[in-house]
Amino acid sequence: MRDLEYRIIYCLDKEREGITGKRIADECACSVNTVRNCLQSIRPELARNGLKIQSKTAKGYILEFEDRDKGEEYIKLVRSRISNPIFGKQTSENYKVNYIIRRLLSSQRKVPLEILCTELFYSVSSVRREFVRVEEILSEYQLSLKIKRGEGYYIEGNEWDKRLCLLAQHKIFVNLDKSYQELEPDFIKLFGIGNEDIRKLRHRIRDAIVESNCFSYKMYQLPILTNYIVLMQSRRLETDGVYISEKQEEIIDNSGAALEASRILKSARIEEAFTDKEKKTFAMFLLAYRNVTSVESLKTPELDESRREADELWKVIENIISLKCYATEEIEKEFICCTYCLHNRLIFHIHPDPEDIREFTMPNVVVEDLILQLSAYLKGKYGVHVSVKQLTGFYYVLLKVFEKKMNYAFSYDAVLVSSYGYGAASYLAAQLLEHFSFYFKSVTPIEYTQLAVTTPEKKILIHDLKPDTLKPVYKSTFHEEICLIEQDIHSEFLKKIGDWISKKNNKIVNQLCHHNFLSVADMDEAIENIMLYFRNEMVDDDYNKLEKWLYLRLRNSTFQMSKETIILTAQVPTEYNGIYDFHLQKDVIWKGRKWSRVLCVLYRLDEMETIFHMMSYVQNNI
Questions:
Q1: Which of 610, 604, 619, 616 is nearest to 321 (CA)?
Q2: CA end-to-end span of the chain, whole Å?
Q3: Which of 51, 330, 342, 400 fits a 20 to 30 Å CA distance from 499?
């Protein structure tokens, strides 16, 4: 039966003295003709359950009993159905998908399709449609949806992956309204939600983890660690279904995680309740979520393995652009820590926590593309998709190294002379390096009398001297001159330098920037127009490479998003270097957000100065 038919029966049950078709139509938000048709179709169903509908003048429709026991049982079922929070909800699609996953994972038996249909108020075809999305989610955990003829549906896979999926579902479940939670008693029992003894156990586990001298964790990770022990306890009978690979065994042995797991369980006064294999699964979980910020906390086998992994990733990067030579010892150590944490998560199939993902707050076209290359390499190595967001730690490490390279390749050497003397020049040089370190590699304060012996590699002369004071021979030593004579050098110094940098940047960017206006209805049309623009500008081979790269990024959502701007990047031959700024004349809704422009940044890796100016434009104009 349809939801509308249940609502009509409920209206008849509420008004035992009679209710008109017009009132039923108003309450059910349908027409009177629809009510008449539904009443006709539900009469056989009511007759089978000891009920009948009478129509009386001046009273309307009246629900009467033919078999009181059967009728009251059926009415009780209808009332229960109507009061269920799932009933009639059109916005509960994701809820229903996750409900199916929780239902199948927490059930001790296989679940028939008819039971799922009854619990979700769905037709058979609707539930089967939801199975498509269920299978997509399960595949992320290496699990699969199976059916056994005559018994029902179940989820097949490694017990370890089932537990990871259950923990992810727990995060969703605790944010549901209480009325929804009460519909899933098996899931509540699985995690001991609302159980005072389990709550005390969680506190003991949390304290034991915090006291650990070996492993450290971020505060927001503690709940999931404590939840795992509760889940491990409630699914103790399923532990034999946990498959531990040789590589996972090796990592556990090298790290001493098994001893740490035993210590935590002993401190929480529950060690005796678990077998050695259960303790080993907890050790896997401790390693997967371990937060390493210093290589000194790693044991020698762990450090050697992580260093080898890090060297492989550096090779991927070096094949694209030479960066490692600019990495300090501290940066290399940070890179190893990122490698260790990522390696453990991939080996133990752990998905990134939303809290552990930082957005790229400083867009850098080159570093983001390097991260994409790492993502592709790791996918080939581990056989799983590694999202760009999982590599956020690497992004910020590589950003530091790239800025060093950029600083070395592009920033200026300057000489600063002040009419106020050497002391003032030294103070201003320090100010300049503090505020504009990216633009100036070095700033040397000198006396006026030293100008004649200044080395010729110095490119810029910054001074506040009058034109007739500065001899032409001194000027010819430098590539460029910044004269601050128009302003008081102390009060306007930084502003004047900033203006000079902006003017220089704008001059170059104006040559690189191409503005276009698109009048489109949706983002698909916008992308088509953008690709048509490049189709007309490029030769076939270059266009084909660009098209493949940009569409790959759009499909995988690996593009920068800032405010109302989408930023797409790609490497191209020199003649196509530039920023292609496509302004959408009408705001476009796409992926649930409003967009007003698409920025395509095309660059060549060996042209660092051009890259610098394009990045400056991106950061200053979005």
A1: 604
A2: 54
A3: 400
Mean pLDDT, the chain, whole residue set: 84
Tell which residue, 301, 238, 229, 305, has the closest CA to residue 261. 229
- The distance of Cα 319 from the centroid of its chain, to the nearest Å, equals 27
pLDDT at 89 over 60: no
Contacts for 581-585 with beta carbons within 8 Å, 24 or more apart?
581/513, 581/514, 581/515, 581/516, 582/516, 582/517, 582/518, 582/526, 582/529, 582/530, 582/533, 583/515, 583/516, 583/517, 583/518, 584/518, 584/520, 584/526, 585/517, 585/518, 585/519, 585/520
- Measured CA to CA, the distance from residue 365 to residue 603 in angstroms comes to 9
Candidates 615, 591, 593; CA nearest to 602 is: 615
Local confidence band at 303 (pLDDT 50, 70, 90 cut-offs): very high
Cα–Cα distance measured from residue 36 to residue 345, given in angstroms and rounded to the nearest whole number: 60
What CA–CA distance (Å, rounded) separates 18 from 375? Answer: 67
Q: Which helix (H) or strand (E) covers residue 39, if one does?
A: helix 32-48
Alpha-carbon distance of 475 to 513, in angstroms, equals 33
Quote the CA–CA distance of 110 and 27 in Å, as a whole number.
39
Distances in whole angstroms, Cα of residue 231 to Cα of each of 16, 34, 269, 527:
49, 49, 17, 47
User: Over pLDDT 90: what percentage of the chain?
Assistant: 29
Q: For strand 565-571 and strand 560-562, is the pairing parallel, antiparallel, or unpaired?
A: antiparallel
Long-range Cβ pairs for the range 323-331 (8 Å, 24+)? 323/398, 323/401, 323/402, 323/405, 324/401, 326/401, 326/402, 326/404, 326/405, 326/408, 327/401, 327/404, 331/397, 331/400, 331/401
17: Cβ contacts below 8 Å, ≥ 6 apart:
59, 62
β-bridge mates for residue 150, sequence order: none
The model's pTM is: 0.70
Residue 486 is which amino acid? E
Q: What is the largest CA-CA distance in the chain?
A: 116
| φ, ψ at 513 (rounded to 5°) | -90, 135
What is the Cα–Cα distance from 6 to 150, expressed in whole angstroms? 29
Rounded to whole angstroms, how far apart are CA atoms 7 and 27?
Answer: 9
Residues 509/613, Cβ–Cβ less than 8 Å: yes
Which of the two residues, 145 and 375, has the higher pLDDT score? 145
Q: Distance between CA 602 and CA 513 in Å, rounded?
A: 11
Per-residue pLDDT reduced to its tens digit, 106-145: 998 999 999 998 888 777 888 898 899 999 999 989 999 9
Cβ–Cβ < 8 Å for 226, 202: yes
In the numeric block, the tokens 């003649």 are attached to 575
